[in-house]
């Protein structure tokens, strides 16, 4: 074994100066984006424009309380625009690149936690905010994609329950959202290249695993695989899911309670409490 030191900038130390290069395999030339100073910053969530002429980058300062979405010319590497700036008194961490609308390259979707929850916001390419697409005391977990015509957007969210994941459809014109996943549990989804079908894999406390295909147009689902129950011949204890209120009297704290399989309601039992911090 050999020791290989790697640079890890602790608080107060200088960070690596990162660059973004665009390599052209035809000419074998590389153009570096002129991201300017200060050089100690994070260049994150890089995305191409639909016409492949512009690079969009979410630039975050070293203190990670300011994020600027910038656009660069992919040929010259020059800065074109600073579309908008997001700040937070504590911490900001953009997780997802811009997503351009399928049928309108002049608009894009941006994910942000600016109101306390991760939601979708619509912008035009000048950086003007056109509206908040989703809102509520729940998080957008991931965007799946658009349907064939780009009229509807599909995403996973925790709106139904913070201990479940469900698939939703958002109509881009009316703003109406529809829950597509019908059974309780944690759903994961993939959209077909055509945008016509969603592959839905999900499990729950009472479901060892299922896979269903959902037609995005008619919202019809077909279950074509169900996993065998691995505990079919096992006597399981009673398992209950529930919630209690936090000290503020508002926030729900979720729990799972496992009782002995031969529990006697007239007796008292010792309890093991495991807290996931």
Give structural notes.
The chain is mostly beta strands and 277 residues long. Helix content is 0%, strand content 46%. The protein is built from no helices and 20 strands. The chain has strands at 21-24, 29-32, 41-48, 54-61, 66-73, 79-87, 99-101, 104-112, 119-124, 129-132, 140-146, 152-157, 166-171, 177-179, 186-191, 197-204, 207-215, 221-226, 239-245, 252-258. It has a four-stranded antiparallel β-sheet, with no helix packed on it. A four-stranded antiparallel β-sheet has the order 7-8-9-10, with no helix packed on it. It has a four-stranded antiparallel β-sheet with strand order 11-12-13-14, with no helix packed on it. The radius of gyration is 24 Å and the shape is globular. 18% of the residues are buried. The model has no long low-confidence stretch (mean pLDDT 93).
């Amino acid at each position: 074994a050999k020791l290989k030191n790697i640079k890890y900038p602790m608080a107060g130390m200088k960070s690596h100066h990162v660059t973004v290069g665009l390599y052209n395999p035809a000419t074998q030339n590389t153009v570096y984006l002129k991201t300017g100073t200060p050089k100690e910053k994070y260049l994150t969530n890089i995305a191409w424009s639909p016409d492949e002429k512009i690079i969009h980058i979410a630039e975050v300062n070293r203190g990670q309380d300011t994020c600027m979405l910038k656009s660069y010319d992919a040929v010259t590497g020059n800065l074109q625009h600073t579309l908008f700036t997001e700040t937070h008194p504590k911490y900001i961490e953009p997780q997802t690149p811009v997503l351009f609308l399928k049928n309108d390259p002049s608009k894009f979707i941006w994910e942000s936690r600016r109101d306390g929850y991760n939601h979708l916001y619509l912008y035009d390419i000048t950086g003007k905010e056109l509206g908040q697409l989703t809102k509520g005391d729940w998080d957008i977990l991931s965007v799946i994609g658009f349907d064939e015509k780009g009229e509807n957007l599909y995403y996973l969210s925790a709106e139904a329950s913070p201990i479940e994941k469900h698939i939703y459809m958002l109509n881009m014109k009316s703003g109406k959202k529809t829950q597509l996943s019908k059974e309780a549990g944690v759903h994961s989804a993939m959209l077909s290249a055509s945008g016509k079908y969603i592959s839905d894999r999900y499990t729950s406390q009472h479901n060892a695993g299922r896979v269903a295909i959902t037609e995005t147009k008619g919202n019809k689902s077909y279950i074509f695989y169900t996993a065998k129950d691995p505990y079919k011949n096992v006597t399981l204890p009673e398992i209950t899911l529930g919630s209690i209120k936090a000290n503020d009297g508002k926030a729900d704290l979720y729990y799972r309670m496992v009782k002995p399989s031969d529990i006697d309601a007239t007796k008292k039992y010792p309890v093991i409490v495991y807290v996931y911090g």
